[in-house]
Automatic annotation (TrEMBL):
It holds the Pfam family SQS_PSY. InterPro entries: Isoprenoid_synthase_dom_sf, Squ/phyt_synthse. Keywords: Transferase. The keyword Transferase applies. SUPFAM superfamilies: Terpenoid synthases (SSF48576). The lineage of its organism: Bacteria, Pseudomonadati, Pseudomonadota, Alphaproteobacteria, Hyphomicrobiales. It comes from Chelatococcus albus. This is Phytoene/squalene synthase family protein.
Amino acid sequence: MTTSDSPSADGALAWAYAHCEGLVRDGDRDRYFATLFAPADKRPHLFAIYAFSHEIARVREVVSDPMPGEVRLQWWRDALGQGPLGGTAAHPVAAALMATIARYRLPVQAFRDLVDARVFDLYDDPMPSLGDLEGYCGETSSALMRLASLVLADGADSGPADAAGHAGVAYAITGLLRAFPWHAARGQLYVPMDVLARSGVTRDDVVSGRGGPGLAAALGEMRLAARGHYEQAAALLPALPMAVRAALLPLALVPAYLARMERRDYDPFRMVVDLPQWRKQWILWRAARRFA
């Protein structure tokens, strides 16, 4: 009997998957509830992918400066090169992720690219352009949707990659706009410099909390970009195999989030945009019915 076939190994892996589910439930509610509409046998593997993304995304929040963050990200690069029987057994997210990668023959390079993209989060460098932001969102959020699609397709063809591409960018830009108050307060800027420049806003206007009359226009341009990607993704959904559409379910929340940002009382420096949990679940339920 090999180590991977032993009862103790099976129990440890089951615990690792359960740990991933708990992380996603507590830290990524949108994807947690969207995953409940996926087939039950695929959910642990989706939770493993999302837990990995959650761990990478929160590195800046748990380190005091960029260097320890770089070390944490390098650990993940090394772990991704070790395979399911490497030195990752002691880390439940890594153990579950590597087992999922092996089971569905997922492309490891996509996970490495996601880690590399998150290096940007460790520093306060401004996002240069809207194109750079779309690339960042593509390597993080879009890649996540594409990988989830591969799991739902049992590692086979999951349909046009552009669907996950546009869906991920729409969802990620919307998420960055929702988190604008947090980012601005800690001197981090995801609204691209070219978007700010077109509206006569500087980086200092944002990180100081001054804002200025042009900020509303800059944020409006960002919402317009998110809506454009949302519409392109929605147009591509019918081309996706039925089995993989649950991977794109978080996309359904984008219009409601954007609408909250367009209310007259919206203050980008003080309002973290969210929806009541019942409404999120209702939107996802309706979308799951439409997708099916």
